[in-house]
Structure formats: structure tokens, C-alpha cells
Amino acid sequence: MKLFISSTSPFARIVRILLQEKGIAHEEILVDPWASPAALIDATPTGKVPALVDAGVAISHSLLIAQYLEAAYPEQALAVPSACEMAQSALAFGALEAFASIIIGRRTRPDFDDAPVGLRRRGAIEDALQRLNAGTPTHTEGSMPSLANIITVVLLDAVRFRFGNAHWVPDVPALDALSNQLNQRVPFASTRPVLA
Predict the structure, then answer these.
(1) DSSP 8-state symbol, 115
(2) What would you measure as the largest C-alpha separation in the chain, in angstroms?
(3) Which of 51, 70, 135, 147 fits a 20 to 30 Å CA distance from 11?
């Protein structure tokens, strides 16, 4: 099994955490998706990370990869999410997409953060963090984190990594506590974003 990643991609981090939590052996291939490396394009014509190649199956999109891993490797399955956990996962993932829009927008327009679309994306992240903080997904120590836990922590860590304590990033003590708790686990700690 091969997983194409970027060291700063929150979407790749979701899959990296899942693979480690499930104990699935895999090879991580670090790529620069902006350079469109041939091996990544062979795996997925979109050139996006993460891209998983397993036994002739190639999948790119973190949530679809998560579904594939649950189906193909059910031995260490995630708990079946409640309706509330599904809503939390969707909210956190939507904010991750807004986060990615800002990062991509910055590559094409230096003032993207202050442009109307950038401001809307930033507002979406801020609102999502506040809502998630008000109803933080819980995690029972010793159990496998839920997908809602994983996506929420990945979102918060990505925001902290790229935006630090920017004036618009809300105070989210409940999310910080969840992040601190889960970042003690090796799958989380070993996949924290770093600039290569």
C-alpha cells in the first residue's frame, strides 16, 4: 500500500492518522502536489493528495479513502458514528475545505485573505471552530478516536499551523483540550504539519 502525501496537507493527515490508528502497514511517498509529479499523476489525474494505491485500487479524497479503509480493513474499525458525530465531521471537513481555499487562493493572489472570497472562507472557519467548540466531539481515553475527533483536531492544528493566533481565530478551549489530548497519541503527534 502506498499513500502519496504532502507534509502540510490536512487531508493527507486524516488518512495518515487513520492508517496508523488501524495499524495498517503502508509506504508514505512525500510529494509536492504543485509540481505534478508523474507518480502522483499516475495514481490520480487530479494530482491531489492524499492518494492511496492498494492492490491495484487508486483512490484520492480523504473521506473516500477512509470509507475504503473501513471496508477493506474492518479488523480495527472506527465506531459507527452517531448523527451528531456525522454532523460534527461534516462541519469540520467543510471548514478544512475553506482552509484549503485560502491556502490555494494565496498562491494566485497575494491579497486573497482580504478579498471577498478569502473573507468568506475565513468567516466559515471561525464560525465552524466556534460551533465545534460549543459541542466538542468527546473522546474516551484508551479507545480509537472517532472520525469526528480526527477531522476536528486536524482542522484546529492546521489553523494553528498556518494562522497562529491571528486576530480572527477564536478562543476554543474545549477544542484545544481535545487537540492536546489526542496529540499525545503517536498517530497524531507523528503527523503534525511541518514545512519540508
Answers:
(1) S
(2) 48
(3) 135
193 within a domain of the structure (yes/no): no
Domain that holds residue 28: 2-76
Q: Give the pLDDT band of residue 162 (cuts 50, 70, 90).
A: very high
* 196: pLDDT strictly greater than 70: no
Q: Whose CA is closest to 60, among 24, 33, 20?
A: 33
Radius of gyration of the chain (CA): 16
Q: What is the CATH number of the domain that holds 184?
A: 1.20.1050.10
- Give the DSSP letter of residue 69: H
Q: What is the pTM of this model?
A: 0.95
Say whether both 103 and 155 belong to one domain.
Answer: yes
Pairing of strands 2-5, 57-59: unpaired
104 and 166 inside one domain? yes
> How far out from the chain centre does Cα 195 lie?
16
